[in-house]
């Protein structure tokens, strides 16, 4: 019951906080907030508590692998957004995510080369993002339902993944964790409400933060079995705080 309460309270609280911060400081900061391990962290913790540290470490490595699918999703959405409306763009990017995930399902890479490959993929996609033009912006006020919907979707996803984990196994569970539910939600809302340039800003902020996200997962996959849950998560959180602080400083310098 305590784990269920953790799932039901922690995830929507984190998503609400990220949504409010993004609404106050803009789409790029919203994307940067989405890059925080708001769901992967709680999911990995819950897997460690319910299925053991070995399962959670393997899942964290699988989640890190799924970063390649996430990079492909962002690249496809960003390249199509200036020409397509949000719905077909979202469908196309999701289809690419599913394809890359299917291709990666039988693949298991050594941890350090995997981490380097994911960081390289994020860097390449960041450099490939189109520039945001002012004529790509439009204005539509956010609805009262958008943040509650994000919270409901997030909580449902965490419940589904942690509930299905024993049947899926650690590797496939990890690959599915990076499914860009929150990225898609934030980008699609920005695209619909403010135009494709707003979605591109979300992705730019997201990619700036994903280096810390990948390093968080790398740290957990590396340390969970050797150091235990408390130490591994403490070090991983420290890594996220330092790297996200640096990325936020760089992002705020860019957006002025």
Overview of the molecule:
- There is one protein chain.
- The chain is mostly helical.
- It has one domain (2-255).
- Helix content is 82%, strand content 0%.
- It is built from twelve helices and no strands.
- The chain has helices spanning 2-25, 27-34, 40-51, 53-65, 67-80, 86-104, 111-128, 146-168, 170-176, 181-194, 196-227, 229-255.
- The longest helix has 32 residues, at 196-227.
- The radius of gyration is 17 Å and the shape is globular.
- The mean pLDDT is 82.
Please tell me how large the radius of gyration is: 17 Å
Distance between the termini: 46 Å
User: Could you list the spans in which at least 5 consecutive residues all have pLDDT below 50?
Assistant: none
| Biggest sheet statistics | none
Shape: globular
Q: Specify the helix fraction band.
A: over 70%
Total count of helical runs of at least 4 residues: 12
Q: Indicate how many domains the architecture comprises.
A: 1
Mean pLDDT: 82
**From N to C, what is the helix and strand string?**
HHHHHHHHHHHH
Q: How big a fraction of the residues is strand?
A: under 5%
Total count of strands: 0
Structural class: mainly alpha
Question: What tags apply to this protein structure?
Answer:
12 helices; mainly alpha; 256 residues; 0% strand; globular
